[in-house]
Amino acid sequence: MERTEIIFAAVVICFFAGCENAQEGAVVVDEMGALRAANVQLSEELAQSREQIQVLSGLEAEVRLENVYELQAVKLTRFTNLYDKDNDGKKEKLIVYLKPEDEEGDAVKASGAVDVELWDLARGDGEALVGKWHVDAQSLRQQWVATMITINYRLIFDVGGLVEGDEDLVVKVVFTDYLSGKVFREQMVIKPR
Length: 193
Prior knowledge:
Blueprint: H1 2-57, H2 61-66, E1 73-76, E2 81-83, E3 93-101, E4 112-119, E5 129-135, H3 137-141, E6 144-146, E7 151-158, E8 169-177, E9 183-190
Antiparallel strand pairs: 1-3, 2-3, 3-7, 4-5, 4-8, 6-7, 8-9
């Protein structure tokens, strides 16, 4: 009987070893399929890149640079103000409408970072700065808004409890353009509504 048990154990071991190899084979086949798909995608991207290189190499360098939209100004628009968004009588949101412009005065979705400050100049020294915010490039790109009236960035900041009354305030903006490295400064007086 010992001999039969040994043969049975050997058969069981061989069976499980074969199953394990079959599972490994299936994993290898799946990996090969994924690699083939990745190879096709990379080949398509390479072909597209070669086409772009061919087109761009045919243009003179000066022509390419002359036709890049260059940011000339960053303006705060007339809709920039404090707003009561929940109709409770308190202005809890500062909405800043910021319009980057090219040479023709057209709105351009410029990549960059924005620093915004809200000032109440009627307050005493050291208390005039009501609030300040920073918007990085990743967040800024999500704030681009196009409506029938205007095209610009719309930045919304919470000022709940920071502003009381209807005194004139000053909004200051510093926009750093990531394409040119230029820094644009703009400010405007707002009359809370």
